[in-house]
Design brief:
heterodimer; A: 639 residues; alpha/beta; Rossmann fold; six-stranded mixed sheet; four-stranded antiparallel sheet; B: 294 residues; globular
Chain lengths: 639, 294
């Protein structure tokens, strides 16, 4: 009781700066439409007022770059897929439009979609190779792209070489009689529309269910895969998205500047784009746009600042990152949160007492909660099946057959065979290094066995990746807590409820299913008596609560097989009691394989126990035999 | 003897990459930060000595000592002010991404200051060892090239001995592997971070002074040098200075051979394509995964 109701007493929300607006429940539609509207209106006003002046031309140039950085905010900032491909694809867009315009006399507006499709296909081919790499390998491999492109462009005669490629056409279709004012203003407005589209798509992605997936992907690829995120596909989609946005920015650049300099593709341009992104705020779309505007204005200022732009950029980036790693967007968010707190503090004087009471009433003991959970979920037909108890009876749900695993010359698992029925709680014990976690990883799919097969419900899933196994009903927790820092408890559980494996990154731009997932997550949390903490940021929780959140996340998708890796480690005696009651409830509902060092806990809750030693299965029996077995005692108890 | 001369030229360029790769790798090992500004210190070394000697008329030795002192003082100050706030402050910077951008900003800043002070023209520090190039039959080696090689051997060897055989080297390694653990064991991780940061900055500056007579530097040369050093370090898994050294040499030789036999124009393009293919084909072997996941 104390632990869970304890959460309720500490319910002050710890909103995370820079992520505000993404962490809370955002059922209000304007969340993602506001930036688009702001960009559209403000951009149009600036172009209409300053269109034919120098300020206007600087703004339009900045808007071209902002289209690119908006894509980078999704790809690099939010999803942390660091690929240095933007300047190259900006070049693809710009040179593509220039070539079609010069050699085929194609209007820029007609050439743009053709070039975008071409860029998308190129990115698809290139991406399917490079996105197989992760983290630094991806960064280093794509770092070659601007180097290769710069070398190629400077010596390719038909692209104009070091001179660059001029265009005769303009973004707004023009003839000799069209006035320059019309060309500048109409062209500027088109760029603003492009930018608004880019901002709309980018911010919709970030606030959708796919956005949550991408966030998890950015934090930890392995956890993401275990939560059903199709990581290879998402990484490829992100790469293509970043490239298409960059190509659109490049096309807009060519159409408005009427000239493509060869420096557009080289590494310096790539660095300049990254600086814009990081000054503006890497995880915020609107921040990325602001970053592009700020840098372009500084560069176009025609005074000491633009002459010494490198010094200014260096100092600005350092200072902004020192104040807030989330850039200008983060600084603004922190400021707004502070204002809101000040305003809220005055009005909510009477609030807290009432809300704590309500929440305390909401948080029953874990045992009661577990009972409710089981009662609410067990299907009527299940009772008879569970009564059988015997493992051998009927076809097993999960079967690992003759599993062997070697790392180099070291044998971690040796011919392990286990069959588990549809329901029940099964313990897996063994000394350190016995291969327990490896066996869980083999079942979960994050480790491929050297030999043997994993069969789920009669189907061989040995070669299936972890995300597919998740959708087949295998859910797991990790030995070390693998929660997604920076998101709320609710979102951490919602990740497992997304069921978005078949949808592409842009499918949910129009209709996000994030709220459905959050509803489902909220129900699971409520069933477990954890509603009081659902809006807390996960790293502010105690270890017990974090483990409970992991359990909730593993349970939320109603798995057929639940793999628990030492859920009791680090918990107190009292906390273990609560956990035991909860686990028993789980076992009545589904098939649970529990890896645990606490032998009393295992013997108390398991109906059957497996013991591994040096990768071999040395014991297999009920709790009574387990306690009496000389093998178990010599191995685990030391008697 | 085209092949022989290409290999010699490749080894000289390769040893430049190798030294910068070692600087990047050693500091990454101690701080888990990739230093993209290391090449800019080399540029400051070369252009600073040139400016003080040629324009201000200082004696060569004074110009060198002054430049190195400025580089050392500046990098010390940078560590004390920026890195201390960024890394040891209340809110520690998360992950490799953000910290990476601090050295990135530093690189921009140094380049900008160099542009103000030294202008945009190509300059080089005066050659330290004058005379015709050394020849053995048809093989040729510039005297400056020999100096570069000697420096590379001395610097690489010194780092190797330091890390492999001294207590300081072990402490340095511990700082990077597990900073908290190292601090518990009584190692002043901040001191090692500062020591290596200032040390690599000064080494880079020395190297710039020795090497610049061969290639000549502008205020923008630093980024190119850092980039190649960074790449070579990447192929050494970022943490292994020894492998970074070998990778740097190999990239230099490969570059020279591709330039000589494949195409002078597209040689670099082919080189980068090969390097990218290597990363993609063999990320684990190159040590990328260990550099990322832990």
């Amino acid at each position: 009781m104390t632990g869970l109701s304890g959460f309720a007493r500490r319910t002050e929300r710890t909103g995370l700066a820079g992520l505000d607006g993404l962490t809370g429940v955002s059922s209000r539609l304007p969340r993602s439409l506001t930036p688009t509207a702001v960009v559209l209106v403000a951009g149009a006003v600036i172009v209409l007022v300053y269109g034919q002046q120098y300020t206007g031309s600087v703004f339009v140039l900045a808007a071209c770059y902002a289209i690119v950085t908006a894509g980078m905010a999704v790809q690099i900032g939010f999803s942390q897929q660091i690929a240095f491909s933007q300047s190259v694809f900006m070049g693809v867009g710009a040179y593509g439009v220039a070539m079609l315009n010069t050699h085929f006399a194609m209007p820029v507006l007609v050439a743009t979609p053709i070039v975008l499709v071409g860029a998308g296909l190129t990115a698809l081919v290139l991406g399917s190779v490079v996105t197989r790499a992760s983290g630094l390998a991806l960064a280093v491999a794509t770092l070659m792209l601007p180097l290769i492109a710069a070398g190629y462009v400077s010596s390719a005669g038909y692209l104009g070489g070091v001179v660059g490629a001029p265009l005769t056409g303009t973004l707004w279709p023009s003839s000799a009689s069209t006035s320059t004012t019309v060309i500048a203003v109409a062209g500027g407005l088109i760029v603003v529309i492009f930018l608004a589209i880019a901002v709309f798509v980018a911010s919709r992605i970030l606030t959708s269910d796919i956005g949550l997936e991408l966030f998890v992907l950015g934090v930890d690829e392995r956890t993401a895969a275990a939560m059903g995120v199709r990581t290879p596909r998402r990484k490829l989609e992100l790469f293509v998205l970043g490239c298409v946005f960059a190509a659109l920015g490049g096309a807009a650049y060519a159409g408005t500047q009427q000239f493509v300099p060869e420096t557009l593709v080289d590494p310096t341009s790539e660095l300049a784009l990254l600086i814009m992104l990081f000054i503006g705020g890497r995880r915020s779309v609107i921040g990325a746009v602001i970053g592009a505007l700020v840098i372009q204005y500084l560069q176009g200022a025609s005074n000491w600042v633009s002459v010494n732009i490198l010094v200014v950029e260096g100092v600005l980036l350092t200072v902004v990152l020192l104040v807030d790693p989330e850039g200008l967007a983060g600084i603004v968010n922190t400021g707004m949160a502070w204002l809101r707190r000040r305003r809220g503090a005055a009005s909510a004087a009477a609030g807290p007492a009432a809300s704590v009471e309500a929440l305390a009433g909401d948080a029953p003991s874990a045992a009661k909660a577990g009972g409710q959970w089981a009662a609410g979920h067990v299907a009527p037909a299940a009772a008879t099946a569970a009564a059988d108890g015997g493992v051998a009876a009927g076809t097993p749900l999960l079967e690992v057959r003759g599993i062997g695993k070697e790392y180099g010359g070291l044998t971690v698992l040796d011919d392990v065979t286990i069959r588990l029925p549809e329901r029940g709680l099964f313990g897996l014990c063994g000394p350190n290094g016995a291969g327990k976690t490896t066996l869980l990883n083999v079942i979960g799919g994050s480790v491929a066995p050297s030999r043997g097969t994993v069969i789920l419900d009669g189907e061989d899933i040995t070669r299936r990746p972890p995300d597919e196994r998740f959708y087949l009903g295998i859910s797991r927790t990790f030995q070390a807590v693998h929660l997604i820092k920076g998101r709320t408890v609710l979102d951490n559980v919602a990740v497992a409820c997304l069921a978005s494996h078949t949808s592409s990154i842009v499918t949910r731009v129009m209709r996000s299913k994030l709220d459905d997932a959050r509803d489902k997550a909220a129900r699971t949390l409520s069933d477990l008596g954890m509603r009081g903490i659902q809006d807390r940021e996960v790293s502010s929780l105690t270890l017990e609560s974090q483990r409970m959140v992991e359990l909730a996340r593993a349970l939320a998708p109603n798995p057929r097989v639940l793999l628990l890796d030492e859920p009791a480690s680090g918990l107190s005696e009292e906390q273990r009691h609560r956990l035991a009651e909860l686990l028993t409830a789980f076992g009545e509902r589904t098939c649970v394989l529990l890896v645990e060092h606490d032998l009393d806990l295992v013997a108390q809750v398991s109906e059957r126990i497996f013991v591994l030693s040096s990768g071999r299965l040395v014991f297999d029996g009920g709790p009574a035999d387990f306690r009496a077995s000389p093998v178990v005692n010599s191995l685990l108890v030391g008697r | 003897m085209k092949f022989g001369n290409l290999v010699i030229a490749g080894i000289v360029t390769g040893s430049i990459y190798a030294v910068f790769a070692v600087c990047v790798a050693v500091w990454y090992r101690v701080s888990n930060i990739l230093n993209l500004a290391v090449g800019d210190f080399a540029m400051v070394g070369a252009l600073g000595v040139d400016n003080l000697y040629r324009v201000k008329g200082l004696p060569l030795w004074a110009a060198i000592v002054t430049t190195l002192a400025v580089v050392g003082a500046f990098s010390y100050l940078y560590d004390q002010v920026v890195l201390r706030i960024a890394l040891d402050g209340r809110r520690q910077m998360e992950g490799i991404v953000v910290t990476f951008f601090f050295t990135f900003a530093l690189s921009f800043f140094i380049d900008g200051v160099a542009k103000m002070l030294f202008g945009t023209d190509v300059h080089a520090a005066p050659a330290l060892w004058n005379g015709a190039s050394l020849s053995w039959g048809s093989l040729h080696l510039e005297r400056a090239g020999l100096l570069v090689l000697a420096c590379a051997v001395i610097i690489g060897g010194a780092f190797w001995v330091y890390i492999r055989y001294t207590l300081g080297g072990k402490a340095l390694e511990a700082s990077g592997e597990n900073a908290v653990g190292a601090r518990i064991a009584g190692i002043d991780t901040k001191r090692y971070r500062r020591l290596i940061f200032v040390g690599t900055a000064v080494i880079a500056a020395i190297f710039g002074i020795v090497e610049s007579p061969i290639t000549g530097y502008t205020y923008l040369s630093g980024a190119t040098i850092s980039l190649t050093g960074f790449l070579a370090a990447a192929y050494g898994g970022f943490r292994k200075p020894g492998r970074a050294l070998v990778a740097g040499l190999a990239i230099g030789v490969l570059e020279a051979l591709l330039g000589g036999y494949v195409s002078a124009e597209y040689g670099d393009t082919v080189l980068y394509a090969i390097l990218a293919a290597l990363v993609l084909a063999w990320p684990r072997g190159l040590g990328f995964e260990s550099a990322v996941t832990q």
